[in-house]
Amino acid sequence: MKTIQIINGPNLNLLGKREPSVYGNESFKNYLEQLRIRYPQCHIEYYQSNIEGELINKLHEIGFSTDGIILNAGAYTHTSIALHDAIKAITAPVIEVHISNVHARETFRHVSMISSACKGIIIGFGLDSYRLALESFLTEE
Ligand code: DQA
């Protein structure tokens, strides 16, 4: 059975309360429960931190053993060379996800420091972005 690790970065602990017009009304806890019910054929691990170094530590901790990582780095996407380097340093494939279509928003969100280190990118499908990334890991050989 595959283990897939979801990692959420800063401010994503507030999903459901934070700017609902952009990020929706659903909490990630609720979404994750539904995802685990829908995909009993894999283990879905979850970690969230608002702290850049903690996200890097988590990547180091699980990045040589887990089957795939779904990473929404929040605003660190646009700033963090350290996260880019951490993704490059590990062996597990990482899919970058975003809930909102960052390219339809402010120009500072159009740049990602981490995309080039990732296996692929899924952007703008709401919370379904995470499920689409999961599907990708589960359907690959
Ligand atoms: C986000 C987009 C980022 O620009 C923003 O800083 C977030 C959330 C998204 O999922 O749409 O925190 O990663």
> How many strands in all?
5
Helix fraction bin: 25-40%
Oligomeric description of these chains: single chain
- Contiguous runs where pLDDT drops below 50 for at least 5 residues: none
Average pLDDT confidence is 97
What does this structure look like?
The mean pLDDT is 97. The protein is 33% helix and 20% strand. The protein is α/β, with parallel strands linked by helices and 141 residues long. It has a 5-stranded parallel β-sheet with strand order 2-1-3-4-5, with helices on both faces. It has one domain (2-138): Dehydroquinase, class II (Rossmann fold, 3-Layer(aba) Sandwich), CATH 3.40.50.9100. It is globular and about 40 Å long. The protein is built from 5 helices and 5 strands, in the order E-H-H-E-H-E-H-E-E-H. The chain binds 1,3,4-trihydroxy-5-OXO-cyclohexanecarboxylic acid. 1,3,4-trihydroxy-5-OXO-cyclohexanecarboxylic acid binds next to loops.
Q: How is this fold's topology laid out?
A:
Layout: E1 2-8, H1 20-23, H2 28-38, E2 42-48, H3 52-62, E3 68-72, H4 81-89, E4 94-98, E5 120-123, H5 128-139
Parallel strand pairs: 1-2, 1-3, 3-4, 4-5
